[in-house]
Amino acid sequence: MDLNADLGEGFGVWRLGDDEAMLDIVTSANVACGFHAGDPATMRRICLAAAERGVAVGAQVGYRDLAGFGRRRIEYDFAELRDDLMYQMAALDGFCRLAGTSLRYVKPHGALYNTAATDEAQAAAVVAAAADFAPALPVLCQPGSVLAQLAAGAGCRVVGEGFADRGYLPDGRLVPRSSPDALVTSSEEVADRVVAMARRQQVVAVDGTVVPTPVESICVHGDTPGAVALAQRARAALVGAGVHLAPFS
Amino acid sequence: MDLNADLGEGFGVWRLGDDEAMLDIVTSANVACGFHAGDPATMRRICLAAAERGVAVGAQVGYRDLAGFGRRRIEYDFAELRDDLMYQMAALDGFCRLAGTSLRYVKPHGALYNTAATDEAQAAAVVAAAADFAPALPVLCQPGSVLAQLAAGAGCRVVGEGFADRGYLPDGRLVPRSSPDALVTSSEEVADRVVAMARRQQVVAVDGTVVPTPVESICVHGDTPGAVALAQRARAALVGAGVHLAPFS
Amino acid sequence: MDLNADLGEGFGVWRLGDDEAMLDIVTSANVACGFHAGDPATMRRICLAAAERGVAVGAQVGYRDLAGFGRRRIEYDFAELRDDLMYQMAALDGFCRLAGTSLRYVKPHGALYNTAATDEAQAAAVVAAAADFAPALPVLCQPGSVLAQLAAGAGCRVVGEGFADRGYLPDGRLVPRSSPDALVTSSEEVADRVVAMARRQQVVAVDGTVVPTPVESICVHGDTPGAVALAQRARAALVGAGVHLAPFS
Amino acid sequence: MDLNADLGEGFGVWRLGDDEAMLDIVTSANVACGFHAGDPATMRRICLAAAERGVAVGAQVGYRDLAGFGRRRIEYDFAELRDDLMYQMAALDGFCRLAGTSLRYVKPHGALYNTAATDEAQAAAVVAAAADFAPALPVLCQPGSVLAQLAAGAGCRVVGEGFADRGYLPDGRLVPRSSPDALVTSSEEVADRVVAMARRQQVVAVDGTVVPTPVESICVHGDTPGAVALAQRARAALVGAGVHLAPFS
Fold first, then answer.
1. Nearest Cβ partner of A94 from B44, B98, B133?
2. Listed residue (A94, A97, A105, A102) closest to A127, CA to CA
3. What are the strands, taking DSSP E only, across A35-141?
């Protein structure tokens, strides 16, 4: 099983989360590439630190929207979106190569993640950028999403991900953030969930339904002090249950 | 002899110069990378068009300053400047590889060009970015500049450039843009100059002094209709004088 | 009757259209405020030039999206959009006051114009910003749009506008830009249309239907040389038909 | 005596310092205006909160440089800098007026603060923007600086400020940030210094020299948890010493 987290999401003087702490927890780092967050100096630092630890680096690509942190849906033209994503992937890959490694996968961020899960045009732009960058580049996304379908159809490797600290609906989608059940905050519950995902490929939805989760990676968060502790607990639970942690790529 | 020009210097809806016309004139294209100008869709289009024509692509890297078009000196920290430049080079290289080629050289833009010609710290950042990107990556710059010296010292290939339409001082520097002699606008004079640079490695300065110009590339401009015609005239004069035109890289 | 046009839509070194020529044609200038286009030096210059000519200045407010020129719909949060628009209006008003006048109205730009014509939340944000800025501030928009309804309900003055060079559907909406009938390019036809709008408050739709156009202002464009000539023709036709041209504000 | 602090220096999702805590300490708030930091929603929130507490709002104007947080000197053209500053002041004033008050003063930020202290052209641009915005608008700056001299000459009210937690050189300038004596971190020492500035208009420099500080305002910082506590201590010391705290404006 792989553990992934969003890293490098500060910009200039502004920091978000504890990148160094998270690099000791995860096996894959989704590094922001400068459009919704991230700056070149941070990208370099994280790529070097990830390479030292054997953590795989993926491009966490987003809309060009620093002010909105990539969380506002934007009605991009297909080609413009594809090229904006390609640009971000290539830029990050430069720092990966400097660190003696290379870009291993792509994962869309924020509103692009949500939009590409259901919108064919934006999903197709993500897939086109991935295919332009490298044949069969892995795409990290939600199982069953439109993005997963299109990526598979285009010959990309599709890597399904589950969420350690997000509530699930009976149909496998996430509980919307506006709902009180959106976040799982109990560390025991998080520990139980990640082990169930890793060992039995399933999670219990908010209504008690058992939902299948065919995932190769589990997403943890690190943007608050509490989140880092929760991520550490998730890792410890997996290790304690005998789950082997390694990059999927 | 190589002919180079700055291309792709629009941004979004805004255009600057006639990129397509210039691609039929030059042998090397200095492509803007998104920090002072340039957007991913334009970078892709130009890289593809350049590759079709056998025009070499170099990274025209600049300060992060769209509002100032990279023409305002910024007191960057060394590492921040190096990483901003590395980011730009890697992003452009992604589109080069998509076009079946690769990034062939780097040339600083605007205020960075001028600053790196005399300022050790900024010149060193340009050189560090070039060396980080690829060993011996050619650096296109003014002969005798601090950048030329540091690049040579670091093992980069230094490619000197002359200017078809800029006045020269007796010491080999360019006439400042604020002076009436800054620009050469007569197409006959431009034709004579480029042939003298190519055949005799020299140019006549504003006071009549003959100045040596040990250059492998001549820079032409294309940001006005008149400039495109002047560039065409320069190319025709070189061809007429039997000078072989080809990328230096 | 008022004639309005979008002005100041360059950014830094990039220009779009001939602002000076258009200021001699229109009676109201929709000045870009820096988010989709426009920079402070341009805003100052246009406000001063407009004030000299008795041209009213309105805020052409847009999404924060220079790369997309405000033409991509963005799913803003209500309060964020309201505050982004308020910021733009206040900034432009500073240059108006410097020129001895004040901001006279607001008009949304591009994708915000289209979205606010049908989307209640974004229309409400435009109205909230207008009301925050000044009681009863005129809102320039399409007659019958959701924005027009909400603005009227909030006590803003609603100023309907027609388009000199855009095709109309039988229901009064504009022909989408993707259609071949989207633009009217014949100067004679433009002349006839603006006179019909001004004298009879009507326009002939693409299918021959006569559509009522209860407008106080007609929008002309100036972003191409041909557009400026068309705008001059529209103005001449109105003057020739005895229509008095003056700012609506 | 007035207490001022830099507020609203986040951007979008990123936060810097505890604005609400600082608004209970200071009598004047230097609010970031969107160019080096600050977004419209934050500007609105702080202007409303400041007005409720009787805290005066000033424009903390900076270079257009979010990535560098306004801390990198930029070689602006005079008119461009003046207009960029005017734009920021006017935008913030819009939110002040919404809160029932108005912009009371201007203070340059970061590299602009330092540059305008010694560079005539940039100081003149700050003064021109202030004078354009409102006659006699107070300029908050270091006593004896070039900015103070030019502002006085132009009829602006000059308000000198001292620094609660910065070391002083014998000539009245601040110890550079690169020096170990740059910051005063002892809360007792900070308390003694602010009382000495307020009661005796003097401060003890790093070499023991007593330096005159003709100041009407003392700057405190709030960008770290420790900084907020230090600012609270400074306020308590002044109140304890019988110093009346009120906005200078």
1. B133
2. A105
3. 56-61, 105-108, 139-141
| Beta strand segments in C97-165, E | 105-108, 139-141, 158-163
**Is D83 near chain C, with CB under 8 Å?**
yes
Which residue, chain included where needed, has tokens 């950014």? C11
- Residue to mutate among B35, B66, B73, B74, with most D CBs inside 10 A, is B74
**What CA–CA distance (Å, rounded) separates C106 from C84?**
13
The CA distance from A15 to B27, in Å, is: 44
Residue B225 has pLDDT above 80, yes or no: no
CA angle D176, D179, D183 (to 5 degrees): 80
Residue C67's SS3 state is: coil
How far D101 CA lies from chain B's nearest CA (Å)? 32
What is the separation of C-alpha A31 from the centre of its chain, rounded to a whole number of angstroms?
Answer: 9
pLDDT at A177 (0 to 100): 83
CA distance B142 to B148: 7
Q: Which residues of B76-89 are buried (b: 16+ CB within 10 A; e: fewer)?
A: beeebbbbbbbbbb
What pLDDT was estimated at residue C140?
98
Selection from D150, D90, D84, D81 nearest residue D117 by Cα: D150
CA distance C167 to C203: 9
CB interface of D with A, residues 19-48, below 8 Å:
37, 39
pTM: 0.97
**Tokens, residue C163:** 């388009």
CA angle B17, B21, B23 (to 5 degrees): 100
Measured from the Cβ of residue C122, the count of other Cβ atoms closer than 10 Å reads 28
Residue-averaged pLDDT of chain C: 96
**Residue of B39, B94, B132 lying closest to A93 (CB–CB):** B94
Burial of C119 (0-12, 13-18, 19+ CB in 10 A): middle
Q: What angle do CA D133, B72, C20 make, to 5 degrees?
A: 55
Element (H, E) at B160: strand B158-163
Q: From B96, B104, B135, B141, select the one nearest B119 (Cα to Cα).
A: B141
ipTM of predicted complex: 0.96
